[in-house]
Each structure stands twice: as structure tokens, then as C-alpha cells.
Amino acid sequence: PGRLLDLEHQNAVKLDQVEILVLDEADRMLDMGFIHDIRRVLTKLPAKRQNLLFSATFSDDIKALAEKLLHNPLEIEVARRNTASDQVTQHVHFVDKKRKRELLSHMIGKGNWQQVLVFTRTKHGANHLAEQLNKDGIRSAAIHGNKSQGARTRALADFKSGDIRVLVATDIAARGLDIEELPHVVNYELPNVPEDYVHRIGRTGRAAATGEALSLVCVDEHKLLRDIEKLLKKEIPRIAIPGYEPDPSIKAEPIQNGRQQRGGGGRGQGGGRGQQQPRRGEGGAKSASAKPAEKPSRRLGDAKPVGEQQRRRRPRKPAAAQ
């Protein structure tokens, strides 16, 4: 929506004669903070128009958005709300974070899997995992928002044709993927939003076909797993793989949650720039009132510090003279 507003500002498009408004991937746009841009677009549209809203998940936030934007809408659901298909077998494998890639390669090789869709949280993570799998002799490719459309199209075509066995994707890049009879989906990293888990595993088990969804869960992700199971209203079966049992001495560490911090520069969480982005995104709030305010008090506001030093020095002069 922001790009559309830019084009409208440049008089490249006119919105005052739009007859049909389509909000696709509404849950993703809401999650990424596009609601304000959407509202700005709405103010530029004719009051009388047809509105369509599409969403892979239908959370309470999406319902509230629909009630605000749509008038007497007809609701059509192709699946029950926030539920996984009964055709998909779900399993959880607990494993240490540093051994996830090793376990994934082991499962692909042992099971002779020929077509596997793997999900990561970040673009950097997708690239890194695809590189590591290729080093393991498993032909893989990554797709995400930083890849060109041509690169994504080629990767998907190679995946469908069998030229590559593993497609590593982020949640956004996987939206709209249509892969017939995909047998395996792997959550290499659990999503930060429980509803995204339902959407991920929905890539398999389509059209009465069966599928398998596996999640590699480290100690850092136990809370994410509990949130997913709370949404599903059931516990996902656990399967221990001999030789890959997690080390009980390893303590959980906070997960850098890029999506929840997106407004403050969450994009950098996966790319190593998370320290810089929040300062730019929150400069009007925290950085202006906290850190810069402390520095002037030391450098510019010298009246009190100097006075204090002078008061301390005055008694010392007689002492020195004696």
C-alpha cells in the first residue's frame, strides 16, 4: 500500500474512480503494520465500491479489520478457523539448535525425501540453511523477499521438476505457493505467530492427499510450541530421534522476535542490523529523551558540575597552603 500511495502522489495512478478494492493477504499486511497506509488509501477511493478481503488466517484482529472496512460482507470459509487438516500428520522433534541442520539432513537422507518445503524465520536464515544443505549434498534453494521474482520463479520451477529437493522459504515468500501433493513440510524454526504454523503446514495435505509436517524445536522455542498447541487445542505428538536428544544442560535464550518489533526496526533482527534499526525507528521517542538527554547534562550543562568542583576546591587551597 505504501508503494501505491507513492505512485498516487506522483500522479502515476488515480484512485478516485476505483470500482473494486481487493485486500489480499490481509493478515500479513496487518502484521507488518500496513494498516495506516491502507486507511490512507481508503480515503482516496470512492465511497461506493465493491470490497473484497482475503486472509489465510482469520484472527480476531482480522475480524475487527473486516468489520471496519467492509459493509454487510458475505463471509466465505474454505477451512475451519485456525485448524490443521486431518490429512496432515504432525510431529515434534526436540533437538539442540546447533544440531538442527544435521538432523534435517539426516531425516532427508534416511527417508529419501525428494520434495521438502522448509520454513525459517529470516531471510538470512533461509540463505544459510540452503547453503549448508547443498554442502551436505542435498540440492536446495532459498526463496524470500530479497530474491528477484525471476530467481523465485526459477527456484519454484526447479523444485516442482525435481531438480532441487529442498525449498527453504520464509513465511511471506511462501504465501501463494501452489505445489501439488507436497509430501513434507518442516518447521526448521517455529513461527513467532501461532496462526502462521497453521498456514505453513497447510502447504501439504491438500486435495485429499496426505502430508507430513515436522517441527524441529530447540529449548528456546518451547513457549512458541505451547502457543501453537493452545491455538490448535491439542498437543502435537513428540518423537525422539536416537542420537539427537537435546542436551538438558543448555538453557533457553530469548528469541529475537523480528515481527513483533517490526515497527522499531525488526527487519534487522535476522540480518545483523538490529542494533541500528531501532534507533532510527524510535528516534522520536526513546533515543531523543533518554540517551541524548544524558550527554548534554554532562557536556553542556556545566553550571552545577563546575560549581560543585569549585566548592570542593576552595577548602583544599588553605589546606595546600598550610
TrEMBL record:
On whether Hydrolase is a keyword of this UniProt record, the answer is yes
- Name the domain of life: Bacteria
> What are the start and end residues of every segment in region (Disordered)?
242-322
Q: Bias category Basic residues: which stretches?
A: 311-322
Basic and acidic residues: which segments have biased composition? 292-302
The record's listing under SUPFAM superfamilies reads: P-loop containing nucleoside triphosphate hydrolases
Classification via InterPro entries: DEAD/DEAH_box_helicase_dom, DEAD_box_RNA_helicase, Helicase_ATP-bd, Helicase_C-like, P-loop_NTPase, RNA-helicase_DEAD-box_CS
Domain (Helicase ATP-binding): residue spans on this chain: 1-76
Residues covered by the Helicase C-terminal domain = 87-249
Please provide the record's keywords in A-Z order: ATP-binding, Helicase, Hydrolase, Nucleotide-binding
Q: Name one GO cellular component term.
A: cytosol
Q: Does the keyword ATP-binding apply?
A: yes
Pfam families according to UniProt: DEAD, Helicase_C
Any idea which GO molecular function terms this record carries?
Answer: ATP binding; hydrolase activity; nucleic acid binding; RNA helicase activity
Bias regions of kind Gly residues — which residues? 261-274
Database matches in CDD domains: SF2_C_DEAD
Q: Which family does it belong to?
A: Belongs to the DEAD box helicase family.
Which protein are we looking at?
Answer: DEAD/DEAH box helicase
Q: Give the species.
A: Escherichia coli
